Amino acid sequence: MPQAANSSTRLQDNSRQQKRWRELSFAWPLLKWLWSFALTLFGLALVTFAMTRLSPIDPALQLVGDHASQSTYDAARVQLGLDQPLPIQFLRYIETALSGNLGQSVSTGQPVARDIARTFPATIELATAAVIIGAILGLALGIAAALHQKTWVDTVARIVSLFGYSVPIFWLGLLMLLLFYARLHWAPGPGRADVVFQYTVKPITGFALIDTWMSGKAGAFKDAIAHLALPATVLAFHALASISRLTRAAILTELGQEYVTTARAKGANARRIVFVHILPNVSGTLLTVIALAYASLLEGAVLTETVFAWPGIGRYLTTAMFAGDMPAILGATLVVGASFVLLNALTDLLVTNLEAGRRR
Questions:
Q1: Which family, according to the similarity comment (predicted)?
Q2: Other CB atoms within 10 Å distance of the CB of residue 2
Q3: Which of 40, 112, 156, 294 could be joined to 331 by an S-S link, Cβ 3.0–4.6 Å?
Q4: Confidence at 229, pLDDT banded by 50, 70, 90
Q5: CA nearest to 26, candidates 291, 356, 347, 319
Q6: Nearest residue to 279 (alpha-carbon basis) of 110, 164, 147, 184
Q7: Has residue 24 got a pLDDT over 60?
Q8: Three-state secondary structure along the chain?
Q9: Phi, psi of 80 (to 5 degrees)
Q10: φ, ψ for residue 101 (rounded to 5)?
């Protein structure tokens, strides 16, 4: 009896130990991800802080003006903490950024955080619509090119991809406005909404499609879609190029694998091989490509927003640069950079979980 009791105790201890190891094996990748994410954000904050100190623009002088007395200028430096050592200034910068205080915009006179909360939803809406269009068309084009390798379909796909990489996005935007707005009158003008709807729809979420839908005004909703279509298509063309090219390359790489040869030997046709066998295996790669395209659209929509007068964070950043508005420049840079880091980190975590689930 004592031996049976000891054996039962050992089994329970082993079970607890195995459970503990399973918990650690699940938590360890998450802890690594959090550490990597925090370290990258710290590096981003360090870069933006260095920008403030290397910039020729004096924040204190910008605050008090060129004609302020020396005592007023010195008081402004003390108020901004510029009289402290650089490590202390950096710690204060981190503390204020974590609290959501990104400073006061010189050009708008509003807190930078409030300006970003007002403009960033427009950029997210534009980039999201563009990446959805680009992902659907890019995947379709890449799959078609891989299925019809060395045919006219493959040639067209590669030409479209090359064109998407090569054409300047601002030139393409201006061309689309000239053709579809000025000549054919198929698309509305620049901006996010017609003047008729700008002051009749209450901005609740900051996303025009959601706000116009919630307002119950069908005309406003259709107008929001019409204004979004052209700039989203221009951005989508840029995303389509990278997605289609990498989709084609990933599928062609997998076509030489043994499991594809086995599937062919069993009588599977090319379409079934691609959609049933290859795409699940390259889903992690495709997800990474789409996420990177989305992140690049979030940070690279500056020219598109400028051409289409889209009131997003890219246009806000451009206006701040022309005005020498350092708080606005740094705040927008920090938010866009943090969004890029967050998207990459979440994608890495999701891809890791997908690959772990596939191995199991």
A1: Belongs to the binding-protein-dependent transport system permease family.
A2: 6
A3: 112
A4: very high
A5: 356
A6: 147
A7: no
A8: CHHHHHHHHHHHHHHHHHHHHHHHHHHHHHHHHHHHHHHHHHHHHHHHHHHHHHCCCCHHHHHHCCCCCHHHHHHHHHHHCCCCCHHHHHHHHHHHHHCCCCCECCCCCCEHHHHHHHHHHHHHHHHHHHHHHHHHHHHHHHHHHHHCCCCHHHHHHHHHHHHHHHCCHHHHHHHHHHHHHHHCCCCCCCCCCCHHHHCCCCCCCCCHHHHHHHHCCHHHHHHHHHHHHHHHHHHHHHHHHHHHHHHHHHHHHHCCCHHHHHHHHCCCCHHHHHHHHHHHHCHHHHHHHHHHHHHHHHHHCHHHHHHCCCCCHHHHHHHHHHHCCHHHHHHHHHHHHHHHHHHHHHHHHHHHHHHHHHHC
A9: -85, -5
A10: -95, 105
Q: Is 36 exposed, middle or buried (0-12, 13-18, 19+ CB in 10 A)?
A: middle
Tokens of residue 120, six digits: 């960033």
Q: Which pTM does this prediction carry?
A: 0.82
Angle among Cα 148, 153, 156 to the nearest 5 degrees reads: 140
* CA nearest to 188, candidates 132, 234, 142, 230: 230
Q: Give the sign of the dihedral formed by CA 289, CA 294, CA 299, CA 304.
A: positive
Structure tokens at 300: 């690279």
One-letter amino acid of 237 = F
Residue type, 235: L
List, in sequence order, every residue forming a beta bridge with 104; answer none if it has no partner: 111
**What is the token pair recorded at 323?**
């005005």
Residue 143 pLDDT > 60: yes
Instruction: Name the pLDDT band for 230 (thresholds 50, 70, 90).
Output: very high
Q: Contact at 8 Å (CB) between 310 and 170?
A: no
Q: Residues 191, 175: contact at Cβ < 8 Å?
A: no
Is pLDDT of 137 > 90? yes
Contacts of residue 61, defined as CB under 8 A and 6 or more positions apart, other chains included, come to 68, 73, 76
So what's the pLDDT on residue 20? 57
Given a cut of 60, is residue 82 above it in pLDDT? yes
Residues 169 and 252: beta-carbon distance below 8 Å: no
Question: Model confidence over 290-322: pLDDT tens digits?
Answer: 988 888 888 767 788 888 989 889 889 888 888
